Amino acid sequence: MNRREFLTIGAGAAAAACFATPLLSSCSRELDTLQIGYIPITDAAPLLAAHARGFFRDEGLNVERPRMIRTWSSLVEAFLSGKINVTHLLLPIPIWMRYNTGAPVKVVAWDHTNGSALTIGRDSGIRTFSDLGGSQIAVPFWYSMHNVILQLGLRERGLKAVIQSQDTPLAPDEVNLLVLPPPEMPAALSSKKIDAYIVAEPFNALAEERTGASILRFTGDIWKNHPCCVVVMKERIINSNPVFTQKVVNGVVRAQDWLRQNPLEAASILSQEGENYLPVPRSVLERVFSGYELDRYGPGNTPQAIMHPEWDLKRIDFQPYPYPSATEFIYRQLQETVVGGDAEFLSRQSSAFVAKDLAETRFVKRALRETGAVFPDIDLNASLSREEVISL
Q: Which of 3, 174, 214, 256 is deepest in the core (most CB within 10 A)?
């Protein structure tokens, strides 16, 4: 979706009326009913678990069953047009929305950390990052953590990201990137239309189980406990109804705490055998929530998906506080990342300004105090800062 298409969506009659006149019935519904949209990936787990476990209802919210949407551009459209009022987005997407198109989107919490991987085909011959030269790799969206982390690794190994037709020959040091919706990636890899893809779970675990694909690297093993998806709301709703916003964030924080303590139960509830929030088998989700074994992915394996066992990570993890240092790092990396379309907007703001302006942290801080949720990396009595650790 280019800027013109984005602005056309944002200027839709319903959305325009809602922004202009908050008292209209369509806007009132936004504030009375929690309407969640999500991509069918485990990034959405906190929103889905909060619905399934009744955390949103416990907060006094009237909540509809979350709507599954297949592509990031369609999810953005649904958010802007008012069909949903809370969703999860890959962190670079609200950066693109807010600073390229002026969309009034705000991050109210991180949704999860890690939870993604670079997956290679069974017969690709790829065993390390250096082997990616000359390959075709799919990313879920140009403005994604996946594209940022992939290209960070490519640059480290002296490889060049390009965007061109798949029929155009590649130099040995070039890697061609294309965008595919996450649900289409395993089939494209199995049919050898692409050599690899980098995406959120469960599509890495799904390819492992069904096609014999391998994990080249877990993204959290490159950038320790990196953010991926974030929970976003419209700035107008946050400002006009802080009580509604606080209830939403409380539910998300409670769900993240529950997910950390109950990973296998979460896999069961979210699976197609359970409440069918995610259209994948329970066995695949159990691998996502618990499958980070060193004897399978660590030293001695080829490829070696875990290079930093000393980091003591989980394949996917959850914590809500949006550390500014991570946003600053992402923004700086985006300035070096090849994307489709015009990225001139990335030169207009400083990374420090974006880190301060993009997120609204008061609701997370209050939720952490009031819900009793505990996360190992968050200390409300400390400075709430961290150092970003990156190592290929």
A: 256
Beta carbons of 251 and 55 less than 8 angstroms apart: yes
Q: How far apart are CA 174 and CA 195, in angstroms?
A: 13
Nearest to 39 by CA among 159, 164, 163, 141: 141
Tokens found for residue 152: 């960070």
CA 109, CA 96: separation in Å to the nearest integer? 17
Write out the two tokens for 5.
Answer: 């298409």
The DSSP secondary-structure symbol of 65 reads P
**Contact predicate 37/66, CB 8 Å:** yes
CA dihedral (200, 185, 203, 364) in degrees, to 10, reads 20
Question: Do 140 and 182 contact (CB within 8 A), yes or no?
Answer: yes
- Spatial separation of the C-alpha atoms in residues 213 and 303, rounded to whole Å: 11
Q: Is the sign of the CA dihedral 392, 184, 273, 36 positive or negative?
A: positive
Q: In terms of Cα–Cα distance, which of 358, 289, 278 is closest to 91?
A: 358
pLDDT, one tens digit for every residue, the chain (392 residues):
554 444 444 444 334 434 433 333 344 445 679 999 999 999 999 999 999 999 999 999 999 999 999 999 999 999 999 999 999 999 999 999 999 999 999 999 999 999 999 999 998 999 999 999 999 999 999 999 999 999 999 999 999 999 999 999 999 999 999 999 999 999 999 999 999 999 999 999 999 999 999 999 999 999 999 999 999 999 999 999 999 999 999 999 999 999 999 999 999 999 999 999 999 999 999 999 999 999 999 999 999 999 999 999 999 999 999 999 999 999 999 999 999 999 999 999 999 999 999 999 999 999 999 999 999 989 887 878 999 999 99
- Any bridge partners for residue 267, and if so which? none
With beta carbons less than 8 A apart as the criterion, state whether 90 and 140 touch: yes
CA distance to 19, 98, 133, 136, per residue, from 164 (Å): 39, 28, 15, 10
What 3-state class would DSSP assign to 141? Answer: coil
Closest CA to 255 of 99, 97, 45: 45
Asked if residues 333 and 87 have their Cβ atoms less than 8 Å apart, the reply is no
CB 109 within 8 A of CB 230: yes
Q: Which domains does the chain have, with CATH numbers?
A: 3-114+227-277+317-371 (3.40.190.10), 116-225 (3.40.190.10)
